[in-house]
């Protein structure tokens, strides 16, 4: 460090510039914070919205036997639990997942992903999503329902 200091102001300036550029990629902007604290519009088009995707496994244990969660059971869950909470709309897509269970075994199973978009920082919607996770885990004997949250600029 002393060698750099003795080289002069140009070396210090260049070193500071390199350090600044190196650190610039370390922090991603927090769009939610920007939206709250900045008068500037964050989105080029549309509004800042929250996007949550839930990932549901479609098998479960009945005793020691693994059985499928049927299409009718899934549709009943969506119709009775999801739709009343998110009447404005949702998207469901098929997936194939795998995960490491509490027993240390890798399980592969058919899955469903459910995506909802709602106003950013809407605590009521976030709580409804938590309710959906708990209902599904209890009803279908699941260890978890994975939740992935992000913010996106959305226009309809």
Automatic annotation (TrEMBL):
Signal peptide (UniProt feature, chain positions): 1-27
UniProt keyword Signal present: yes
Keyword entries, A-Z: Signal
Protein name, entry field: DUF3574 domain-containing protein
Organism whose genome encodes this protein: Celerinatantimonas yamalensis
């Amino acid at each position: 460090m002393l060698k750099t200091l003795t080289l002069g102001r140009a070396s210090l300036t260049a070193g500071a510039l390199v350090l600044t550029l190196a650190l610039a990629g370390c922090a991603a902007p927090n769009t939610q914070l920007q939206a709250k604290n900045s008068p500037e519009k964050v989105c080029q088009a549309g509004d800042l919205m929250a996007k949550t995707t839930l990932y549901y496994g479609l098998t479960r244990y009945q005793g020691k036997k693994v059985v499928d969660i049927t299409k009718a059971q899934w549709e009943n869950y969506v119709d009775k639990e999801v739709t009343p909470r998110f009447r404005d709309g949702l998207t469901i897509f098929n997936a194939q997942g795998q995960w490491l269970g509490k027993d240390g075994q890798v399980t592969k199973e058919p899955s469903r992903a459910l995506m909802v978009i709602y106003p950013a920082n809407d605590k009521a919607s976030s709580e409804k999503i938590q309710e959906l996770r708990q209902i599904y885990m209890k009803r279908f004997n699941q260890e978890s329902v994975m939740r992935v949250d992000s913010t996106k600029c959305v226009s309809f």
